[in-house]
Amino acid sequence: MWYLIARNGVIPRYRLLPRLFQEFIIDQAIASIELTPVEIASYQSRIEQQPTSQFPTGDRTLADTLLSPPPDNSLRQYRLEKFKQLTWNRQIESYFLKRKKQLDAAVYSLIRTREEGLVHELYFRLEEGEQTFAELAPLYSQGGEAKTQGLVGPVEMGRLHPTVAQFLQNSQPGQLFAPVHLGEWWLIIKLEQWLPAQLDSTMHQRLLNELFEQWLQEQLQQVINQSHLTLETFLVPQFQHGFNVQMINS
């Protein structure tokens, strides 16, 4: 295993280097991003309203120091956000439409059990209106929903088993599904509420961050695959200052 050696300790390379590479990639990407005086003033106003750090400088670890922006680059995050906007803002609407089926959410009732005979009996009681999910789930459901009276969600479709997501996407609120067998489980599902995804400001920022993270991971993988690159290639001057760094193999 490779390690980084510094004045105050040893840090496993596999933990630190990917993050160092990411910071290098970001620095290269935002190097040409310029901020207007209005943007700088807005950023400084926001910074002044934030509480100062509760951790003294002397308590910072090597990783904290290496991975933190230097003092003369305090606008780095603002420039990064502007880079995201300039690069992917025009793609957000089409990306949202592409992702919408996974972003739609639902609240649903669920009972799951491994016993086929029991699940059909419970379904009959629900269908006939003899009992409700709230009454049956705490007694018979064998998952976490037993603690919530069978209620699950809101949950995005992209986080669900494809079969469950398909049932919910093709149903109406209040619709009860006959028992379905998935792996070791028998499920009874009822859609309670459908929550279509909306492209509001929160969703816009989330998708912008997703596109950025996808790009960053692609760039990082390219860097890792280039075996001729060494640590020194990525230790830019502000990271090198004050550290005696060398590589050893164990």
From TrEMBL:
Domain PpiC residues, every copy: 110-193
Cleaved signal peptide residues: none
EC id: 5.2.1.8
InterPro entries listed in its UniProt record: PPIase_dom_sf, PPIase_PpiC, PrsA_foldase
Keywords: Isomerase, Plasmid, Rotamase, Signal
Catalysed conversion reaction: [protein]-peptidylproline (omega=180) = [protein]-peptidylproline (omega=0)
UniProt xrefs under PROSITE patterns: PPIC_PPIASE_2
GO molecular function, one term: peptidyl-prolyl cis-trans isomerase activity
Enzyme category, top tier: isomerase
Gene3D superfamilies from the UniProt entry: 3.10.50.40
UniProt protein name: peptidylprolyl isomerase
Organism: Cyanothece sp. (strain PCC 7425 / ATCC 29141)
